[in-house]
Amino acid sequence: MISLTRLNGKPLILNAILIELIEETPDTMITLTTGKKITVLEKAEVVVSLVRTYMQEIGSVRATIQSRDTEGS
């Protein structure tokens, strides 16, 4: 889960695994795999950084890298 801020200043905890698309229009709009759209104050690059950190914390990134390494064997 990652912590973000809605446009009205209220905090939001988002399941990063559900993120499908992040775009700046100029506000940052996050589209989830469910089709729901959420607009946040943080810039897209900040959201991406938070997602990467979260994925590393839960071991998702490491598992993906290891999976790719073993596919070539």
TrEMBL record:
Keywords: Cell projection, Cilium, Flagellum. InterPro entries: SwrD-like (IPR009384). This is Flagellar protein D.
